[in-house]
Design brief:
The strands form two sheets. The protein has a three-stranded antiparallel β-sheet. The chain is mostly helical. The chain is globular and about 55 Å long. It has a domain of 122 residues: Arc Repressor Mutant, subunit A, CATH 1.10.10. The N terminus is likely disordered.
Length: 199
């Protein structure tokens, strides 16, 4: 189970990352750039630099690296003058950790991306905790996380994860009705064997 980022664009749903792509993505700014394009749609290097609080030179360089790996492309329909617009090629990324067992660099890159997902979850949680009192009771009751301890083997765990992702796909289907108070929601799905005592 790998990284998965949602967007509202018309890009193909998913790419299974190859060795080169996973190595390219194991960089904080590149991962944020790809995520921003997936979430917010096509943008220029200048617009992305403002959004991500970085400089345009670094943004342009890393967009070119993502383009060489086939993860972003120039959006020719939006081109105007010297402004280059970029868009994500896919809506989400996926891989299995064992895809990279034969490549230590790619394996280390995939592990970094997974650890980064945990950091992102912590940051998103902390931002929510800081402002949740200003949100409606409906949102405060709906948002959050839970956990469960169940006894499974790897085959049933994979089946459970596949079923959960089918539910996610159903809820993010573009044809589904949109509630009037809908907001982007960042959903994480994680499952790990319990190592050591229960926390």
């Amino acid at each position: 189970m790998g990284e998965d980022d949602t967007t509202g664009g018309a890009a193909p749903r998913q790419v299974r990352l190859d060795h080169r792509q996973v190595r390219v993505l194991a960089h904080p700014l590149r991962l944020r750039l790809l995520g921003a394009l997936r979430v917010h749609g096509a943008a220029t290097a200048t617009g992305l630099a403002e959004l991500l609080d970085t400089n345009t030179g670094a943004t342009s360089y890393h967009l070119r690296q993502l383009a060489e790996a086939g993860l972003v492309v120039e959006d020719a329909d939006r081109a105007a003058g010297r402004q280059r617009w970029w868009r994500a090629v896919h809506e989400s990324s996926d891989w299995d950790p064992t895809d990279f067992d034969d490549d230590p660099d790619a394996r280390a890159a995939a592990e970094w991306i997974q650890a980064n997902q945990v950091r992102v979850l912590a940051e998103i949680s902390e931002r929510w905790f800081a402002v949740q009192s200003a949100w409606s009771s409906a949102w405060r009751d709906a948002a959050g996380m839970g956990d469960a301890l169940i006894r499974l083997g790897p085959e049933r765990l994979q089946a459970l994860e596949a079923e959960l992702w089918q539910v996610v796909e159903r809820y993010r289907d573009d044809s589904a009705p949109v509630e009037p108070d809908a907001q982007p929601v960042h959903l994480f799905v994680a499952a790990y064997p319990l190592i050591g005592p229960t926390p």
